[in-house]
Amino acid sequence: MPQTITRGIKAMLDEANATIETLTPQQAIDLHKQGEGSNTVIVDLRDPREIERDGKVPGAFSCTRGMLEFWIDPNSPYAKPIFQEDKKFVFFCAGGLRSALAAKTAQDMGLKPVAHIEGGFAAWRDAGGPVEAYVPKKK
Fold it and tell me: How many domains are contained in the chain?
């Protein structure tokens, strides 16, 4: 017997978008221009293959979507100190869907303030946001 999905992705995205802050690409670019000393962390949720292929936002913190909850929770063995800082976290993915769900999850976990970039990396790039090529770490 096939599975019966009772709450689909559209409902989940609608719920997320109703409760989180959504930034236009230009608003996100303006926050990025404030630089490293700002009170904002831009979080790239794309997987490494996407970053290698399409490039990255300079200074963005990379956290694959699959590890987000584990990296946010200070009681997790995988916790990352950056998520314990008193900053605003702005999430993005390739097109703005994963980041909406991630921002909602982060907000539900108690991380605040959070937002996501409407249209994701593609919209950022198309709006003239800075992008740099991925350079692998030297071993």
Answer: 1
